[in-house]
């Protein structure tokens, strides 16, 4: 191989490896790698699943962007219509069986985004006292290691088939 072919091969291999490292199923929070537009913590794409018949649990998802100069972390979430709210991640074992495990926090490196999404890190709403109906908004209180607490409206909607419930 010529030097230019070797360089192209190595560049392609590095790009494939970098994409694989960011797969949500491999990490608690997938980092978008983009610069955050503003200082502080910004929230986008906040949504929650509607409750299913006979179930008192749901999951909520969002993207957090830390525009600050220092690392932070999402350490907790509160919801008045839930007996408990927990941060979870989906873990796939060696046999390909997916399960959820509680986590203490979701890291928010300075200048980066973390995506809480189906198949990765997410918020579990447990022991709901009311149903979550498509089209409504519910407010959750996000708590951080350093930033002040933040109330965020989550739109209740379906995600489509084949994703974590």
Q: What proportion of the residues is helical, as a percent range?
A: 10-25%
Please outline the major beta sheet: 11 strands, mixed
Assess the beta-strand content as a share of residues.
Answer: 35-45%
- Round the mean pLDDT to the nearest integer and report it: 80
Q: What is the rounded distance between the termini?
A: 49 Å
Large-scale geometry: globular
Question: Which structural category do the helix and sheet elements fall into?
Answer: mainly beta
Helix count, DSSP H or I runs of 4 or more residues:
1
Uncertain regions spanning at least 5 consecutive residues: 1-33, 161-165
Gyration radius from CA atoms, angstroms: 18 Å
Number of strands: 11
The succession of helices and strands, N to C, reads: HEEEEEEEEEEE
């Amino acid at each position: 191989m010529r030097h230019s072919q070797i360089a192209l091969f190595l560049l392609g291999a590095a790009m494939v490896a970098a994409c694989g490292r960011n797969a949500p199923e491999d990490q608690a929070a997938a980092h978008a790698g983009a610069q955050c537009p503003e200082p502080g913590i910004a929230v986008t794409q906040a949504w929650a699943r509607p409750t299913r018949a006979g179930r008192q649990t749901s999951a909520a998802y969002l993207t957090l962007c830390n525009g600050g100069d220092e690392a932070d972390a999402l350490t907790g979430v509160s919801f008045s219509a839930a007996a408990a709210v927990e941060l979870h991640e989906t873990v796939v074992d060696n046999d390909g069986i997916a399960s959820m495990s509680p986590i203490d926090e979701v890291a928010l490196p300075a200048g980066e985004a973390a995506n809480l999404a189906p198949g990765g890190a997410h918020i579990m709403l447990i022991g709901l006292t009311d149903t979550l109906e498509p089209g409504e908004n519910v407010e959750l209180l996000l708590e951080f290691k350093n930033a002040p607490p933040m109330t965020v409206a989550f739109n209740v909607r379906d995600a489509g088939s084949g994703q974590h419930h």
